[in-house]
Amino acid sequence: MIVVHHLENSRSQRVLWLLEELGLAYDVKKYARDPKTMLAPPELRAVHPLGKSPILDDDGTIVAESGAIVEYLTARQGGALAPASGTPDHRRYTYFLHYAEGSAMPPLLLKLVFSRLAPGSPALVRPLVRAISAKVMGSFVNPDLRRHAAYWESELADRPWFAGDSFTAADIQMSFPLEAFASRGTGAGPKVTDWLARIHARPAYRKALERGGPYAYA
Predict the structure, then answer these.
(1) Which residue of 12, 59, 81, 163 could cross-link 6, Cys pair, CB 3.0 to 4.6 Å?
(2) Predicted TM-score (pTM) of this structure
(3) Which stretch, 27-41, 69-83, 176-190, has highest mean pLDDT?
């Protein structure tokens, strides 16, 4: 039996969605974030030393990291939800599997961190922290996010899905950064908005939400 160690409001929602798309049976072990720090609970470190989610347990085979889990599960199912090897679609597929975490997520995480610095700092230094945060956001983080948003629009202008004409696991992997971007009111364009509406309408996506519980980005 496959068990997903699932943290609320996290990337692991994508793993539940992938499992639903693949039609695989699985159980969900749910974990709540610390209400003050919003970090994962220490219990996850008993499953994997880094204590991060998602973590997949497939009859004792432990797989961590979203992209690695996607590759593991699609290969387990004979290449399901992946384009044929050696094709332009497969090259785009591989790129977006890695781009989602390697390039798209870092500026979103920076935006989250810097938005929380001033409110969480001592009152005496709060104005200074707020000014520094605003400078970093305005000169680096927000321009970077705008470049990514323009890139997504250009990619989806040429085809309905990130890898090509067909829905693939690359779209599942791309869902979290684009959902996080859109939920923070940072100006999702019409192509991204349409893509989000289409993934949210998929029956497997809706079923995964039922299994995973509250998810702030849908």
Answers:
(1) 12
(2) 0.93
(3) 69-83
